[in-house]
Amino acid sequence: MAPGHVSYGLRAQYGLAVTPDTVVAWERGTATPGTRELTALAGVLWCSPAELLAGATTLREHRIARGWTAADLARRVGLDAGAYTRMEESRRWRGSERQTAALAEALELSPRDLLAATGRDQELAELLRGAVGARWQAYVRPVARMLPMERGPLEAVLQRLHSDYQSRTVATLSWGDASEDTGGPGRDFLDRILEHFWALARD
Question: Where is each HTH cro/C1-type domain found (predicted)?
């Protein structure tokens, strides 16, 4: 379908005044359809919203892909609808450990996708930096609050991460200097910790 056909379908079937230029912008990724527009677009294209959001990364995108309204998802995870909407719009998740687990279950998110969708991947990287450089046991609870992982496997991953970091640092310094960046730990260092953590969590 040409952009003009899509525009006509959105107007005729759903009453949405969307121009062909806007449809082109959606295709190119320079503009993003709203929730109502995305649902209508899926109807015009005879597909599900999930198919249009195959690369979903934000909470909103994951929610729409699963067919949840903001109010329904908020109720499912035990939040006030307004509070949930504010978190979704700000891309900063503030839910409790139980609410986070319920969110991951409702949206069928892997731990890694959950962290990316809730904007907390760098926060996790900072916690992992502390875990590899100090007593990893002290970081089990803070990390567990962020991830829907059972404590036993999580403890095993943090212990292994700590051991790997300590042995590599002593032997080769191959992980780099945590203070190489004058503004704090280097981003490369944090990214390496994060990647290694996810690799261990998969095993």
Answer: 18-52, 59-114
Torsion angle (degrees, nearest 10) of CA 85, 91, 92, 95? 40
Token pair 């525009």: residue: 7
> What pTM was estimated for this model as a whole?
0.60
**Count of beta carbons in the 10 Å neighbourhood of residue 130:** 15
- Chain segment 127-147, per-residue pLDDT in tens: 998 998 888 999 999 998 888
> Cβ of 94: how many Cβ atoms within 10 Å?
14
3-state secondary structure of 61: helix
| Cβ neighbours around 38 below 10 Å, total | 19
Cα dist from 41 to 4, 12, 64, 72, 173, whole Å? 13, 12, 12, 21, 52
pLDDT, mean of residues 61-70? 84
Residue 97 · residue 151 · CB < 8 Å: no
* DSSP 8-class letter at 54: T
> What would the pLDDT profile of 72-93 be if each residue is shown by its tens digit?
999 999 999 999 999 988 888 8
The residues facing 181 across adjacent strands are: 184
Q: Among candidates 106, 111, 30, which has minimal Cα distance to 64? A: 106
